[in-house]
Q: What sequence folds into this?
């Protein structure tokens, strides 16, 4: 920290936080510009530009959720709780019935459609917890909260983290179950014609009767920049921690019954995509491009895992989700999101992939996973 | 009309899982866990300030779970923002305007909660505000406002009993007492002047045996540990001033027995004194930590 002290404060007599508040851009710029060539550039928070905050993950601390995680990176703390609820197929509009066989032979794309069509994953972010002065409750979700929720939602679906097979609840094909189903069918005079036909055709086959819906709720306890990385890590850790009760469909009561609280099956989570966000800080404030109008080069810094101050000063951010858990530890880029600015080109993006791989290893260690 | 600013999930209604062993338990009246603490002992609590560095003040409170069963403890975070100037449209106020906001996390209780505040949360917010207003020296900040926001990460609620007994009020009382204590710590962390540290405690009149056994008074009750809770009161109390800032009484007691009421209030004060010890200790640690940090 001492090496990064800005030149101005001693004369002015301002404390560092005051200086940061008064003129944030020059403050960060002075910090990043080394005083002598031997010095390495250092950010206001004492980190090197490509240094991310260490991540701490704690799971299974909530008793009412089926899976939970607390993730802390620096001063950003987020709690995630996954809660499973039963959605009977009768209450899904435009439900396409499927048999046990077809479900097993289904291609991957079809299964993914199931997750998305019936909306079985429901991630939501709550920022209005007073986690930072700008997020106070009593107002509708801010743009940031909506954006992060949607980004988590789309990454969940595009990475195929959850296998829809784990979320299906079947009707027991045992003789007693079938007989009960038949009896119901005779008494039933409703207009459930498709359903009845289906039941008649596949009397002895298991019927798909309900789905688990995973409500993934995220609550920010403390906010200090980079909400997406922390939230995504929390979602992933909570999903890995999720244990679903063993459920079967009871045709008599027409609802899903779970046998016991003690008997649970862990939810399978495929892959380990890790999000890595970096922001681009430009030397010239309010400049939009790498080269200014006068032709001189506008210097830039890539700041990994930006905090709140840095986020407010950077117009361009890149988020890359990578997964190295495949065979051979190869880096697979799952998603790239780039907002604003024109600095990051092909070369920088390639460099960022390397940085993201390093971050992946850190997060993997924090999760305690051996891949 | 669904809220389009959130991800709402499937159109059809989903139901929480129903367990076979719960149904069995209800019918055969499984043996309940019993209270292992002394009648005048509160549960262990953990209080820490400064969990949200960007807020003016913040605190985290955790009350341990009871030893047996799938009973959750209480986990609360509180942030205090301000004092800060009120928006121009607000009429002049000679003192500080408090606004307390209590929200359960969706995963905090047995039933999944929505993101919109419901009636119980509003009620908790109002009571919390009353409890704190008595402790703050509000005249020192005219024309300014303070926001106190509490997120209940885990509600103090038994999975099985609240449904079977049907009275969530007792859980709410425990939650309120936690809210008052944690908010008091956060206010102190924010450096807002108070006449005293306010802490809250709960006392309850419970019946452990059959219907004709004599009821006893316990502090910090867990509804699942008792056969029946007849009445309870939650008291926010300033120990050095010997003042009660908020009193919430609920139950079905005969009006003739004034003694019973007095005893309940006395025990409630006792409980809040115990909570206050924890609070003072925690604040002492905060100050001690800051002081030693400056020296080194």
A:
């Amino acid at each position: 920290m001492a090496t990064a002290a800005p030149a101005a404060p001693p004369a002015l007599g301002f404390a560092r936080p005051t200086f940061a508040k008064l003129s944030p851009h020059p403050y960060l710029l002075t910090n990043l510009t080394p005083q002598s060539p031997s010095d390495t550039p250092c950010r206001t928070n004492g980190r090197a530009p490509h240094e991310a905050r260490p991540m701490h993950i704690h799971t299974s601390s909530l008793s009412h959720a089926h899976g939970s995680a607390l993730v802390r990176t620096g001063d950003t703390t987020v709690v995630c709780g996954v809660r499973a609820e039963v959605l009977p197929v009768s209450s899904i509009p435009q439900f396409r019935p499927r048999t046990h066989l077809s479900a097993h032979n289904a291609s991957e794309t079809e299964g993914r459609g199931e997750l998305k069509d019936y909306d079985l994953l429901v991630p939501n972010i709550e920022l209005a917890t007073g986690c930072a002065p700008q997020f106070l409750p009593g107002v509708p979700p801010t743009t940031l909260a909506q954006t992060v929720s949607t980004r988590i939602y789309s990454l969940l679906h595009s990475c195929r983290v959850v296998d829809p097979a784990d979320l299906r609840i079947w009707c027991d094909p045992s003789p007693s179950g079938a007989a009960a189903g038949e009896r119901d069918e005779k008494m039933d005079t409703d207009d459930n014609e498709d359903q009845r036909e289906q039941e008649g055709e596949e009397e002895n086959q298991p019927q798909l009767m309900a789905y688990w819906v995973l409500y993934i709720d995220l609550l920010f306890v403390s906010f200090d920049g980079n909400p997406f990385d922390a939230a995504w890590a929390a979602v992933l850790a909570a999903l890995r921690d999720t244990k679903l009760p063993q459920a079967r469909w009871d045709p008599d009561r027409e609802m899903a019954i779970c046998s016991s609280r003690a008997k649970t099956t862990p939810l399978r989570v495929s892959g380990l995509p890790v999000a890595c966000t970096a922001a681009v800080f430009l030397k010239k404030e309010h400049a939009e491009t790498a080269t200014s109008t006068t032709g001189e080069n506008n210097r830039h810094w890539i700041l990994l895992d930006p905090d709140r101050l840095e986020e407010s000063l950077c117009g361009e951010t890149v988020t890359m989700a990578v997964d190295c858990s495949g065979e051979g530890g190869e880096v697979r880029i799952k998603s790239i999101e780039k907002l604003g600015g024109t600095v990051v080109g092909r070369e920088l993006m390639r460099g960022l992939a390397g940085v993201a791989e390093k971050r992946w290893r850190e997060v993997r260690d924090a999760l305690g996973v051996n891949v | 009309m669904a809220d389009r600013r959130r991800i709402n999930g499937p159109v059809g209604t989903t139901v929480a899982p129903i367990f076979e062993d719960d149904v069995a338990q209800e019918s055969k009246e499984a043996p309940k866990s019993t209270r292992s603490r002394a009648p005048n002992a509160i549960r262990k609590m953990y209080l820490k300030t400064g969990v949200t560095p960007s807020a003016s003040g913040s605190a985290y409170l955790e009350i341990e779970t009871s030893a047996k069963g799938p009973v959750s403890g209480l986990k609360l975070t509180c942030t205090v923002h301000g004092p800060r100037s009120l928006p121009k449209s607000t009429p002049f106020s000679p003192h500080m305007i408090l606004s307390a906001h209590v929200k359960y996390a969706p995963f905090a209780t047995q039933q999944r909660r929505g993101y919109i505040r419901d009636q119980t949360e509003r009620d908790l917010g109002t009571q919390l505000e009353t409890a704190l207003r008595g402790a703050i020296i509000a005249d020192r900040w005219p024309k300014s406002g303070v926001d106190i926001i509490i997120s209940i990460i885990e509600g103090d609620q038994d999975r099985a009993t609240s449904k079977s007994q049907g009275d969530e009020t007792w859980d709410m009382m425990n939650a309120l007492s936690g809210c008052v204590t944690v908010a008091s710590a956060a206010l102190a962390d924010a450096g807002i002047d108070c006449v005293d540290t306010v802490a809250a405690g709960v006392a309850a009149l419970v019946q452990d045996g059959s219907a004709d056994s004599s009821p006893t008074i316990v502090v910090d009750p867990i509804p699942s540990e008792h056969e029946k809770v007849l009445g309870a009161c939650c008291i926010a109390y300033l120990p050095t001033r010997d003042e009660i800032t908020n009193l919430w009484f609920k139950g079905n007691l005969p009006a003739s027995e004034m003694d019973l009421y007095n005893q309940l209030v006395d025990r409630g004060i006792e409980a809040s004194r115990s909570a206050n010890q924890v609070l003072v200790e925690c604040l002492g640690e905060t100050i001690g930590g800051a002081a030693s940090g400056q020296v080194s």
Q: What stands out?
A: The CA atoms of residues 33 and 120 of chain B lie 27 Å apart.
